[in-house]
Amino acid sequence: MDVKRRRIALSASTAVVVAGLAVGAAYVLEVPPFAGRGVIDSENVCASAGDPGRSVPALKDALPSKAKYSFEDRYNGKNVAEGGSSYNAYCFVRGDGDLLLSTRSRMVLAAPSKEWVAEALGEERTERSEEFEAGALGVVDLPSLKAAVLTPCSAPGTVVGGSYSISTVVHLRSHDGANDAKVKQRLVDLAVEAARFAHRDAKCDLPSGLPVEGPRVGADSG
C-alpha cells in the first residue's frame, strides 16, 4: 500500500472513531437523538387545559416524545360578566420548536349541534367521527386527531345578540405510534377539561352539562 492509500485509510479510520465518540458523548449528555423526554407537569402546562390532575396524564399519553416542551396560554375578548360575547382561550403546546397540539375555546352563538360539529371539525372531519356525552354535545375524530365539546354558556338576554355557547376544539398534530384507542380517549379528556375551564373562565351563567368524570369512548373500530 503506497503512502497516499495509507493516509486515506488512516483518515477514514479516524473519522469512524470520532463519529463513535460523538455518538457516545451525545448519549451521556442526553442531547438529541438520545435526549430524555421533556417535562410535562402541573408547573408548566397551560391553565386553560384545565385540571392538571387530568390534563397532565392526558398530555403525556397523547403528545409525541420530545426533548423539550413549551406551553403557551393566550386569552382575549370579553366574558359574560363583562357583557361580552367574544371570549377566547388558546393553549399552544410545542415540542423541540414544533407545534404539537392546540386548544381553542370561544364563545359562539347557540346553534343546532349538528351544524356546530361540521364547523368545529372542519374539512378534516371523516366518517369515523364519534359523538360522546359532554355539554350539549361532544365529538371526536381520530383520523383528523381532533376532539370538540359544545357547552351552553349564556341564556338569551344575558348578552346582546342572543344565547351563546362555548365551542372547544383540541387538535393534536401528530403522535408517535401510541395505541389509537388511548389517543382517542385522551383527546376526549383534553377537550372536556379545556371546556370545563373555559366555561368557568368565561363566567357562563348556564350549567355546562359536563360530566364530573370524563366520558369514556369506545375502542377504535377502524
Features:
single chain, 222 residues, alpha+beta, seven-stranded antiparallel β-sheet, 4 helices, 31% helix, 27% strand, globular, disordered N terminus
List the helices and strands and how they pair.
Elements: H1 3-29, H2 52-62, E1 69-76, E2 88-95, E3 98-109, H3 113-121, E4 130-132, E5 137-141, E6 146-159, E7 162-172, H4 180-201
Antiparallel strand pairs: 1-2, 2-3, 3-7, 4-5, 5-6, 6-7
Helix pairs in contact: 2-4
Structure description:
This protein is α+β, with helices and mostly antiparallel strands. 31% of the residues lie in helices and 27% in strands. The protein is globular, with a radius of gyration of 23 Å.
Give the overall silhouette: globular
> Averaged pLDDT, please?
84
Strand content: 25-35%
Secondary-structure element order, as H and E?
Answer: HHEEEHEEEEH
Strand neighbour order, sheet with most strands: 1-2-3-7-6-5-4
Brief rundown of the structure:
It is built from four helices and seven strands.
